[in-house]
Amino acid sequence: MYKLTVAFGGKTIERREVDKQTFVLGRSPDCDLVIDNLGVSRRHAEIVMEHGIPVLKDLKSNNGTFVNGRRITVYNLNDGDEIAIGKFTITFHRDQVEEVEVSEGDKPRHGDFTLAIDSSVMAARQRERASKLKGYLKVETRQQQGNHVLDRPVFSIGKAPNCNLVLGGWRVARKHALIVRDETAFRLVDTSQKGRTYLNGEPVDEERLKDGDLIEIPGHKIRFMAGSPPM
Predict the structure, then answer these.
(1) What pLDDT does residue 56 have?
(2) Inter-residue contact 157 to 217 (CB < 8 Å)
(3) How far apart are CA 169 and CA 158, in angstroms?
(4) Closest Cα partner for 174 from 189, 193, 155, 187?
(5) Under DSSP, is residue 118 helix (H, G, I), strand (E, B) or coil?
(6) What pLDDT digit, counting tens, does each position of 165-206 carry?
(7) Contact 31, 24 (CB under 8 A)
(8) If you compute the radius of gyration of the chain from its CA atoms, what whole number of angstroms results?
């Protein structure tokens, strides 16, 4: 197992845990990690486990695949390597054992020790905490209304048909903004590169959302609400 942290413009937009023999990255909707950017080929690159070694392979992409600033064709990945595909940076993390101090109440009777918990267990706990976070978007524009539950780690907003919330208008980018859920909060991330995204009247790059916050995307007003929508 390994982890990928996807960033755009220096802002983290997605974290993925991977437990597959072959993991494909690209623009095509059937890729394992879909990167919606014109500089990315439909099937751009793949990570293949070969004898326990994660190997990154460029799939004859138009603009190339880079690791730590160097263009590669085939590369054995190491923990902390930064993969660049289009304008996106993907940091590779190997699964490691994480040491966690055990509280007094959890220690057994025979001696003190440090409990080693596999990172997959820690990740499962983080997912459990994140799943308890509830929130939804209330679209308040005249042309489009309704509630949209934030039921996934990354919720996309934009003009592209594959966005989770599809908005019309020539000033709306294909992928205008993202709402990223981690174990503690929802965060609004602007990915528009044009038209901007506003939070409570101010332009935003990345900001933690609070109950009742007003998100404005050209021609659209969207209210973030904590909890579940009314029945």
Answers:
(1) 95
(2) yes
(3) 10
(4) 193
(5) strand
(6) 999 888 898 889 988 876 678 888 888 876 689 999 999 888
(7) yes
(8) 20
Q: Looking at this protein, which amino acid is placed at residue 34?
A: V
d(CA 208, CA 64): 34
Which pairing describes strands 22-26 and 33-34: parallel, antiparallel, or unpaired? parallel
Residue whose entry in the numeric block shows the structure tokens 């996807």: 6
**Token digits of residue 82:** 């930064």
Going by the DSSP 8-state scheme, the letter that residue 213 receives in this structure is P
Predicted local confidence at residue 101, as pLDDT: 44
Query: CA 155, CA 176: separation in Å to the nearest integer?
Result: 11
Instruction: Yes or no: say if 172 and 218 are a contact pair by the CB < 8 Å rule.
Output: yes
Q: Are 37 and 86 in contact (CB under 8 A)?
A: yes
- 101 versus 38: which is more confidently predicted? 38
Extract the tokens encoding 139: 């679209």
Pull the structure tokens for residue 55: 């190997």
Phi, psi of 120 (to 5 degrees): -65, -35
